[in-house]
């Protein structure tokens, strides 16, 4: 898993699965586009609970194909929405409560299009990209989420 920058000069500007801390500024800069009237950004953070149980930490693990699958998902979003610029980054490794786990952003000609594309992007990423999380709970138990 690597660090990707401007992929091809097209709409797919930043697509990465990485262990490094994620940056809102980096993602926002990546989707900047003077022809876009709307930019939508989603940030997923580690929360302190899940289904009524206290969460102390998360660990994300990715399949070796995760970044390629993320790229495929972004290509689908670009094909189905009027996206001018897109970025999607997901973190792997051990995270604490409050840490940023995922950031997706899109720029489109109009606000409604940007919201729809951003929603589709995060939903498809969560459903299709092989990244799994291990939750650690305050009672000492653990649970894998998204694992087959």
UniProtKB/TrEMBL annotation:
InterPro entries, per this entry?
MoaE_sf, Mopterin_biosynth_MoaE
Biological pathway: Cofactor biosynthesis; molybdopterin biosynthesis
Which reactions fall under this protein's catalytic activity?
2 [molybdopterin-synthase sulfur-carrier protein]-C-terminal-Gly-aminoethanethioate + cyclic pyranopterin phosphate + H2O = molybdopterin + 2 [molybdopterin-synthase sulfur-carrier protein]-C-terminal Gly-Gly + 2 H(+)
Q: Does the keyword Transferase apply?
A: yes
GO function term, MF aspect, one: molybdopterin synthase activity
Name the SUPFAM superfamilies on file. Molybdopterin synthase subunit MoaE
The record's function comment reads: Converts molybdopterin precursor Z into molybdopterin. This requires the incorporation of two sulfur atoms into precursor Z to generate a dithiolene group. The sulfur is provided by MoaD.
What species was this sequence derived from? Streptomyces uncialis
Gene3D superfamilies, alphabetically? Molybdopterin biosynthesis MoaE subunit
Alphabetized Pfam families for the sequence? MoaE (PF02391)
Q: Name the protein family.
A: Belongs to the MoaE family.
Subunit-level organization: Heterotetramer of 2 MoaD subunits and 2 MoaE subunits. Also stable as homodimer. The enzyme changes between these two forms during catalysis.
What this protein is called in its record is: Molybdopterin synthase catalytic subunit 1
**EC number annotated for this UniProt entry:** 2.8.1.12
**Keyword terms of this UniProt record:** Molybdenum cofactor biosynthesis, Transferase
């Amino acid at each position: 898993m690597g660090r990707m920058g401007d992929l091809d000069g097209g709409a797919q500007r930043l697509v990465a699965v990485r262990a490094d801390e994620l940056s809102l500024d980096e993602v926002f800069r990546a989707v900047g586009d003077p022809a876009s009237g709307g930019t939508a950004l989603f940030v997923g953070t580690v929360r302190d609970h899940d289904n009524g149980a206290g969460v102390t930490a998360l660990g994300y693990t990715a399949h070796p194909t995760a970044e390629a699958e993320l790229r495929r998902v972004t290509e689908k979003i670009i094909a189905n929405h009027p996206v001018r610029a897109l970025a999607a980054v997901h973190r792997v490794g051990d995270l604490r409560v409050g840490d940023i786990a995922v950031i997706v952003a899109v720029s489109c000609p109009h606000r409604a299009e940007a919201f729809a594309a951003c929603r589709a992007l995060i939903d498809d990423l969560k459903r299709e990209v092989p990244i799994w999380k291990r939750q650690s709970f305050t009672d000492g138990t653990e649970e894998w989420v998204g694992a087959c």
